[in-house]
Amino acid sequence: MKNITLRQLRVFVAAARHLNFGKAAKDLHLTPPAISMQIRDLELQVGLPLFERNGKSVSLTMTGEYLLVYARRMLSTLKDAEDALARFRGLESGRLTIGMVSTAKYFVPRLLKLFREEHPHIEARLVVGNREQLVAQMQRNDLDLAIMGRPPREIATRAEPFAAHPLGIVCAPDHPLMFGEQSPASALANYGFIIRESGSGTRAAMEEYLQEYRVDIRTEMELASNETIKQTVMSGMGISFLSLHSIGMELRTSMIGVPDLEGLPLVRRWHVVNTSSKMLSPSAEAFRYFVLEHGETYLAREFGSMQPQGSPAVMEPATPPPAISPAELEPSVPPAAPAAPFQRAKPVARG
């Protein structure tokens, strides 16, 4: 095994993560035949098969399961070494892997774009998953930083709040909840819900709210995609509980409504998170500071009236690395003013 290459290990770990050579190829910007060749060469070095192949699907053999543990450990150690040595090179270049919960994809890519305008030679990679998936990736040292709502309790982390995160009930604009005065939380028991999957932060926030107000709901559907949930809600198939940061465009175009309900919006916090044991590279430290310094201002500018003000102060002082000098976050074209999400619809005269 002494002739195994780091390239082979990276290909093997990606193939084991996806259990699909095509997806691993896309992840690594290679072709599927190149992935198959690297895996075949690695299996020759090991002397045992690492994957069981059944048509297009693959699964790890017991040998593959054992090798995966050590391969991840080796690549993690190498990444730590790269991060440590990067501190001697400064911020001119580097690699950065950022995990984010699916709700954060509505603003993190644009925030990253502004950051890379200041540091164009930093190579960034975004990984999307639910909260449980991101925690597992942080445990494996696959991520430099994560953007999420509810910080992990399963592992030791530094979790720093940078902005308020409003969540609430969403429905079709002509839904009965949109008419009349504020509805009590108990009214939700009358309607079918489309909910997020277990393990998501949105699902956990919804369950906390329902438990606090002792409301039992009727679940019509469980989906793992905010986009699919929004389309289902707009079609009138049910109501849902979502981050209000995920419905900005639909609110501006009056395709979704946010009814006035007791105890809502539920305001949580966005956090930038890294494992306590991890030494951040200069690029990761720079992006962390950028988010803490500018995240709240950007969200307020982007989401307007739906963004609660006065989010909590950062838990620890954010000391900028010497090379950071973020530009003002002034967009070249002012965004359209979003519709106020909590504005009530006027009753429709009937008869």
What's the SSE blueprint?
Elements lengths: L5 H13 L2 H8 L3 H15 L4 E4 L2 E4 L1 H28 L4 E8 L6 H11 L3 E8 L1 H9 L5 E4 L8 E14 L21 E5 L4 H12 L5 E6 L2 H9 L5 E4 L4 H5 L13 E10 L6 H22 L48
Parallel strand pairs: 3-4, 3-5, 7-8
Antiparallel strand pairs: 1-2, 5-10, 6-9, 6-10
Helix pairs in contact: 1-2, 1-3, 1-4, 2-3
Textual characterization of the structure:
- By secondary structure, the protein is of the alpha/beta class.
- The chain is built from 10 helices and 10 strands.
- The strands form 3 sheets. Strands 4-3-5-10-6-9 form a 6-stranded mixed beta sheet, with helices on both faces. The protein has a two-stranded antiparallel sheet with strand order 1-2. Strands 7-8 form a two-stranded parallel ribbon.
- It is globular, with a radius of gyration of 23 Å.
- The relative contact order is 0.14.
- Mean pLDDT is 84; it is low at 311-351.
The largest sheet, given as strand count, sense and whether it forms a barrel, is:
6 strands, mixed
Kindly state the percentage of residues in helix.
25-40%
- Distinct helical segment count: 10
- Distance N to C terminus: 82 Å
β-strand percent reads 15-25%
Mean pLDDT, all residues? 84
SSE class: alpha/beta
Low-confidence stretches: 311-351
**Shape, principal axes of CA atoms:** globular
**Strand order in the sheet with the most strands:** 4-3-5-10-6-9
What's the number of extended β-strand segments? 10
* N-to-C order of helices and strands: HHHEEHEHEHEEEHEHEHEH
Q: Please tell me how large the radius of gyration is.
A: 23 Å
